[in-house]
Amino acid sequence: MKALVFGGPGQRAWTDVPDATVVEPTDAVIRVDTVTICGTDLHILGGDVPAVQKGRTLGHEAVGTVVAVGAAVTTIRPGDRVLASCISACGRCRFCREQRYGQCTGGGGWILGHLVDGVQAQYARLPFADLSTYKLPPGVSAEAAVLLADILPTAYEVGILNGAVRPGDTVAVVGTGPIGLAAIVTAKLFSPAHIVAVDKADSRLEAAKQLGADVLVRADGNPLETVRALTDGLGADVAIEAVGVPATFELCAAMVRPGGRVANIGVHGKPATLHLEDLWIRDVTITTGLVDTYSTATLLTMVESGQLDLGQIVTHRFALDEIMTAYDVFARPAETGALKVVLSSEAPA
Question: Where does the record place the Enoyl reductase (ER) domain (predicted)?
Fold first, then answer.
């Protein structure tokens, strides 16, 4: 079979690899029907995630059809259409029992495309399949479902819930790539007074507007002053960092009001300055986190019922064997206008 293989920083190849097989009795193997590329994959290729070894198949977001299951798997069977979660959960360790699956110490957590081979392939092995897959209702498309593998639960849990967004809040989202857009979509569930979108690309700001942001500001257009003017000089109730670079984290810390919350979603590869000399006296709360995916079932229900509209997030569609081109497009959003790219085992219409 073929897979997208990491060859070290800056190196990737769509190449032949050994077939995915059931290794543990809790495994399932899927035929990958739909897959996407994450900003974290770009961080890996940039050398920001040194735990990823050369030869690793990348990818942690997929929808597929089950082709084989281990003897201990009881909730899915061959032929089922499933969402493969970006987080694997053993279900037995302390953290899994607390629904903190991202911190699983029993062999799970974020392992797909990180510590074990991922899903940017024709077939993929899914560890702990009973707890790490979701059977898909017939009415949910693969394109919508694949957004629930990572970006929707990540934005919702690490951004909106950790940031404690409340009705009437002013929420600033710094970075309106796929994660930032998902934060905007899920922030709307809590009826904020304003959602301020900050980005350097006009195409992403336009997408943010379509998905619910009511104030748009370019990164070079003094977002700090925009937020202060909107809030009588106080600052945002919640500032969500959705990029993963020092400058955007520091901007979020500067734009939050006294008593406000900074929710960091972005994957950081370099240190950021934490100005505790300014923050401590303003009662600012800063949260970070890896997604736990405890909200995935709820979000799936909301997508099925039409409560979450994800239609603006996917901008480019490719056949699976066009993944090298898809990476090139996804990595140059300012030029291509790419938000989320989706690849299918059948050529897109």
Answer: 7-343
Q: Please indicate, yes or no, whether the overall pTM of this predicted structure exceeds 0.70.
A: yes
**Sequence-separated (6 or more) residues with CB below 8 Å from residue 132:** 84, 85, 87, 88, 89, 108, 126
The one-letter amino acid at 266 = G
Considering the domain boundaries, does residue 112 fall inside one?
yes
Rounded Cα distance between 306 and 310, Å, is 10
DSSP output for 108-177: -BS-BTTTB--SSBSEEEESSHHHHEEEPPTTS-HHHHHTTTTHHHHIIIIIIITTT--TT-EEEEE--S
Instruction: Report the domain count for the chain.
Output: 2
Phi/psi for 314 (5° steps) reads -85, 120
- The backbone torsions φ and ψ at residue 154, rounded to the nearest 5 degrees and listed phi first, read -65, -50
User: Which of 287, 312, 331 is where one domain is finished?
Assistant: 287
Q: Low-confidence residues of the chain, pLDDT below 70?
A: 347-349
Give the CA distances from residue 250 to residues 194, 196, 241, 261, 295, in Å, rounded to whole numbers and listed in that order: 21, 17, 9, 13, 28
What is the Cα–Cα distance from 156 to 265, expressed in whole angstroms? 10
Q: Report the mean per-residue pLDDT for the chain.
A: 96
349 lies in some domain = no
Is 340 found in the same domain as 230? no
